[in-house]
Each structure stands twice: as C-alpha cells, then as structure tokens.
Amino acid sequence: MNAVEMGIAVRGMTTDLLLGDDNPTEPFIVRMKPQFNTACWSWLPPHTIYIGEKCLGRAKKGLKKPMVLAYLQAFLTHEVSHLRWTDKDLSRINVLLASSGIPFSLWNLFEDARIEHRERQRSGKKFNWNEYENISVPAVGAYGSPIHEFFLLIQLENEHREERMVEVVAFYDQAIQTETSIGLLPLLANWVTRFGTDAPPSGDLQTSQQLQQDSHFRDTFNEGTVLPGMPSPAEPASIKLSAKGRSKLLSKSIEDVNFQRAEQLASKFLALFGSRQVTIRTEEPSARISARHLELERPCYQRKVAVQTIIKRICLVVDCSGSMTGKPIYDAKMLTWALSYLASLGKIHGCLILSAVVGDKAVSEVFDFPVTREIVSRIHAFGDAEGLNAAILLNQSKLQQADMVFVKTDGEICDEPIDKREVQQRGITVCGLYSGGVQQAARMQQHFNRFIARDSLDSLMDALLQSRLV
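Predicted structure:
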C-alpha cells in the first residue's frame, strides 16, 4: 500500500467517523506525514492527528489487504481516543511529572492503557494489535522487565493476564480504571517507588507535547504533511486541464500558500456536518407529551431523534482580475483550499470556477473539488476585468445544481455587472464574499442580493459559520 492509497483509506475512515453518530464532539484535522513510522495527536488547537506513512512497518508479513486496513484503522482509533480522553494541556502534565521525578514516557505508557480501555468500553471493539504485529510473549513464569510486562498487557488488551507478573497486572488494573490523565500521577509515583524510573525510550505523546510547546519544532514537523489522499508535495501533482489541453487561467509560477492555516479555518465548520438531535412528534408513547396536541387529536408525544446533515454542493467563483492582486487573491486561495479540505473529508461536493477577462473576451475555467495544492498555488490576479456574469451564466448547468454559489471578489467589478435578476431566474443562488477594508464593502450591494463583507478572512469565515450557508 503506497502513501496515496494509505491517505485515501484514512480519508474514508475519517469521513465515516465524522458522519457517524459517535463522532467526536470537537473539530479535528487529520494529516499524513511522510517518513513518520507511527501516529500521534496534539491539541494545537484544533485537535490534529498525524498518521505516519511508515506506521505499518511493524505489520506481520503476508497480511491481506483487509487486515492491513484494519491495522491502519487501529492507529487512527488510538489517536482519536487521545482526542476524546487525554488532557489537552500536555505541557502542564509535563511540568507536574518533572516535579515528581516521573518520566513523561512512563506516563505516556499508562495513558495509552487508560484511553484504549475507555475506547473498548465505548465501542465494544478491540484494537487487535496481536493480530497485526509479531508480539513476543515470554513463557509463563519467564517474565520480562516490569515495563515490558505492562506494555505486553496493552498489546494483548488485558488477555492472558493470569500468565503475567501479578504486581504489574495490579498496576494495569488501576491505570485503566483511572478517570483522568492527571489522575494517573499518584499511581505512577507508586510505580516509581516499587520499580524505579525505567521507562520506554519515547512515546506518541512526547511528540504531541513538543508540538504544543515548541513552535519551531511544530513548523518543521508540519513540513511535507498533506491531507489524507492528497499527493505529497514532493510528488508531481498534475493540473486538471481545460478541454483544449492547457490551463487558460493558472499562473506558470507557484506562490506559497499557508495550507495548514486554511485547514484550521475550515475545521471550524466540521461541527455543522455531524448528526444533530431534533424533536419530532409521534403517536408512539414517550416520556414527554404535549397536552395541547392531545386536545387537538394530533400526535402528542415528543421524541428526540438523530438527523444526519445532508452533504451540500458548494461552488466557488474566484475573481482573477488585476485588482485582486495581493491580499484579495491570497484570501481567495485560502478560501479555495478551505473548501477543498471540506470536500476531501466528504463534507461537501462542488467546484471551483476561475473567472477573468483577457483582452475583450471573458474566460473561465472549472475544477471539481477537491483540487490539488498546485492548482491553488497557481491561482493569480491578472485579468483586464472580472467576467463574473459570463462565468456564472456559461457554467449555469453546474451552478444550478449547487446549494450555494459563493463569489470571492474585491467588489471592483468594472465590466459587465452581475445580472442579479437573470441569475436568480435561472435558479442559481449566489452570495458574494468580501474580506478587506470596510470602506470598499458598499460596492458589494450593487452586484449581490446576498453578500458577506468582513475586514479579514478569519472574521469572514466566522460570519459564514454563523450564517450556516456552508
């Protein structure tokens, strides 16, 4: 299984988790990391999970693909378990451990036991590490070191416990019954008194703690990471070309884009896409009843049911005219990647349309979401004018299928104005988006019945979240 295949599999697993009834209550991002032989989680914020493209290196030889996928799922589930139950402030825990002379990696080991136990209780499913990895189990009575014995109980998921060192089993039992991450500290102090400070050489949470505490380490660690299923920056990413065989609107040069920042902005929207509780009225008896509906002989019982959010179709039209040079086109690129990120998670469908006027001809180009990093990096402001009305009408067959069409522009629409009435008559719902100086926002009203204007991309994304248009 190569890196892209792994990423596609992780993307599917992540989407299933987000759309399920037991999805985590807080937004999170998953990224694939090249040359990383494990997985880790950290609260940056938001919650960020890194799956190493080399994490399957300890797999048994000859595992069939379904088993390899199950092994990969176990890594993701373990890190999501940290997301659910590990204390977010790892730096604080590190300080408390250091003051007590307890190695961080020892706490990491006990925390792994605790959160995996909670996950088994929650889901009723095992991790099955023993099925995927060659685990060396000493013969009965031939015990390894206490640390090895404890780690073995984690790997075997508390099975064959009667064959393991009795004192270590007692510590394991106390660890998995501990309610919080910090609650492990007294137990660890007892362990150190009994067995000393020998600890594993490292752990996934040590990397997590470094990510929180050291911004330089975090920036270096994030270099080369990609969304699940996307090609690595080191791999060639082909541009989706127009029907004539070449891109008309993309620049030949590549501009750096803060993709991770765009994903953090997009992660705010993840809460909108999970299942939600609604109240329905029914004739089936329940604990809640409406006397008024009973008198009117209507269904009078009330019951809460989970309703799955429908995947929306969102299209983004980007103004590529020359007046967009600088911050306006950069914000458009960031917004493009944010929507592409949501599409990569299966949250939305849709397309990107680039629009400009070259000479006296309006031109546009369409890319289905999700798009590649290269496409986003090559979006630029160059046109003699905007061509937005033509771009919308020429691509009406796609835009008529969309729940919402966003137009990212700076409001300086100098050529043919958007015909608001005709666009509406053709069943296309358009909302203009503007981020920049408030004094320019008044121009938006001339072209859009509905628009959102804010002074920054961050506040624009917050306004979009509150509007629930995405």
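Summary: Residues 259-267+310-467 form a domain with the Rossmann fold fold (CATH 3.40.50.410).
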